[in-house]
Write a structure and sequence with these properties.
disordered N terminus, three-stranded antiparallel sheet, Leucine-rich repeat, LRR (right-handed beta-alpha superhelix)
Length: 374
């Protein structure tokens, strides 16, 4: 059996040669023999240095063939759907700008301690796909890949996103759905170039308000999580055209009867001071009391001029989003009396061409079961 190279053109109209072993169900030893013969045969003319793309997807690789590292100008490497349990350091000496290793058997220990081991100490990687492996935590070493634009980590067992994610501020796509995330760090809001954020199929209960800083975000996938509300600032994302919220326990009614613990004497006294505008000096009160007074929050009800501190009412309100559909946002009130009676318009939900939303009435009220993909 002989594998041939084929000429193709990338988006820059640059001719490149492709070595294609894809979907042949080949073993590591067979591919090694074939690659070795190609490198030996072409060594006289140095043709093997022209190879820029190598496709070895959907085979039976359990180790990488050593002759692969002879293709010193390799830019694109697809190793998806194999049985790889280790990525050798030598792999990252190649000038790769796209590496796909999805659906293998990689763990965090399978990855090299650094991806910056070429002679210049700089990686040219723009796309890295490690989806469908066995990673249990965010691989910190990828934070050094400053040229990375597309990162795919879906379908692993990652429990948290690194708080240092802000270092990858050139990312345009961050896909980390199908993991075990329970929260999203505030630092995700620093990824100013992000256009697609996939957080679906996790265990996320709330999103940080910093999401609103992702001004270039076009698609936000949040389906199959534990979200009950969204941060109110999300309405600032003017470029967002796709929002997936289905299969979240999103509340779609205005809550009228709410259990509220009585406020403390400290809370009541502090409210009176703030509402009445009572003047005080630094020497008049203990430092802790002054700090407490400085943490006053205004009630969001425009008809109420009240304030609150520790004692507050959580309230879900439906807000029009981009003129397409309505989403539930969380707001805080100083008293349950500040909740405006909900009208029939509050209970309604809109639908899109792609998927209808549904709700059901139960003892706990109206619960949104599906919100459309915008």
């Amino acid at each position: 059996m002989e594998v041939y190279t084929s000429d193709s053109s990338d988006t820059d109209s640059r001719e490149q040669k492709t070595l294609d072993y894809g979907r042949m169900n080949l073993s590591s030893s067979f591919i090694e023999e074939n690659m070795f013969s190609i490198s030996v045969k072409s060594n006289r003319t140095r043709e093997f240095t022209d190879i820029e793309t190598c496709l070895i997807n959907h085979n039976q690789l359990n180790v990488l063939p050593p002759s692969l590292f002879k293709f010193i100008n390799l830019k694109i490497l697809d190793l998806s759907n194999n049985m790889l349990s280790h990525l050798p350091d030598e792999l990252f000496k190649l000038p790769l700008n796209k590496l796909v290793v999805k659906n293998n058997l990689l763990t965090n220990e399978s990855l090299p301690k650094s991806f910056l081991i070429n002679k210049n100490g700089v990686s040219m990687l723009k796309e890295l796909n490690l989806s469908g492996n066995m990673l249990t935590h965010f691989p910190e070493q990828i934070l050094d890949l400053h040229k990375l634009r597309y990162l795919y980590l879906g379908g692993n067992k990652i429990q948290s996103i690194s708080k240092e994610i802000w270092k990858m501020n050139g990312l345009q796509i961050l896909s980390i759905g199908g993991n075990l995330l329970t929260e999203v760090p505030d630092t995700v809001g620093s990824l100013s170039q992000l256009k697609l954020l996939v957080l679906s199929d996790n265990q996320i209960e709330c999103l940080p308000s910093s999401i609103a800083r992702l001004k270039n975000l076009k698609s936000l996938k949040l389906h199959k999580n534990h979200l009950k509300h969204l941060p109110k600032d999300i309405v600032a994302l003017k470029h967002l055209t796709e929002l997936s919220l289905r299969d979240n326990p999103l509340v779609v009614r205005f809550v009228q009867d709410m259990a509220l613990n009585p406020p403390s004497l400290m809370e009541l006294a502090a409210r009176v001071i703030k509402i009445s505008g009572i003047k005080y000096k630094q020497d008049d009160l203990p430092k802790t009391t002054i700090e407490y007074l400085n943490n006053a929050n205004c009630c969001v009800n425009p008809k109420c001029k009240g304030v609150f501190f520790d004692n507050r009412v959580e309230h879900i309100k439906f807000v029009d989003f981009c003129g397409k559909y309505r989403v539930p946002l969380l707001q805080y009130l100083c008293s349950s009396k500040c909740i405006e009676p909900f009208s029939s318009s509050s209970r309604s939900s809109t639908s899109s061409d792609s998927e209808a939303s549904s709700s059901e009435q139960s003892t706990s009220g109206y619960m949104m079961r599906k919100v459309l993909l915008g």
